[in-house]
Design goal:
Keywords: Cytoplasm, Ribosome biogenesis. With 153 residues, the chain is α+β, with helices and mostly antiparallel strands. It folds into two domains: 78 residues, RimP-like superfamily, N-terminal (GMP Synthetase, Chain A, domain 3); 60 residues, Roll (SH3 type barrels). Helices cover 28% and strands 41% of the residues. Helix 1 crosses helix 2. The longest helix is centred in the N-terminal third of the chain and has 19 residues.
Length: 153
């Protein structure tokens, strides 16, 4: 059920986000200590501001009410993905070239499943990640199970 809700919310939200010049980074729908939470992470070039979150929350809330998609009480949260932004799309790996990232794979690539380094590109369905020792890891996109920015603070 939660997977169906997430996919339906994506379908509803994407046209709105395109109209507002925003990117839908991720959608979560899960039960937490205070009840059900529908959480959307949004982004745009230059970053999101509170007004972006508020506008999306208001407009999306109206659309979700019309669809009557969720048959029980829930809270809608809209926020920025933050400094540790997930990298999900192939385009994310190009957009954030030059930034530090952490990547986990489903199976070993050159003997390892966890990588940390600087994104250097995306070619032939592989992420190019420069490790601390200066070598380049070629990580097949299809093997990635989790990836996110990991800035040095």
């Amino acid at each position: 059920m939660t997977g169906e809700v997430v996919e339906r919310v994506r379908t509803i939200a994407i046209p709105l986000f395109m109209e507002l010049g925003l990117e839908l980074v991720d959608v979560e729908f899960r039960r937490e200590a205070n009840g059900w939470i529908l959480r959307l992470y949004i982004d745009k070039p230059g970053g999101v501001v509170l007004g972006d979150c508020q506008r999306v929350s208001e407009e999306l809330s109206d659309l979700l009410d019309i669809e009557d998609l969720i048959g029980h009480p829930y809270s809608l949260e809209v926020s920025s993905p933050g400094l540790y932004r997930p990298l999900r799309l192939e385009s994310d790996f190009l957009r954030f070239v030059g930034q530090r990232a952490r990547i986990s794979t489903s199976s070993a690539v050159a003997g390892q499943r966890r990588f940390l380094g600087i994104l250097r590109g995306y070619e032939e369905e592989r992420i190019l990640l420069e490790r601390e020792d200066g070598t380049i890891a070629l990580i097949p996109y299809a093997l990635i199970v989790k990836s996110r920015l990991d800035p040095i603070l």
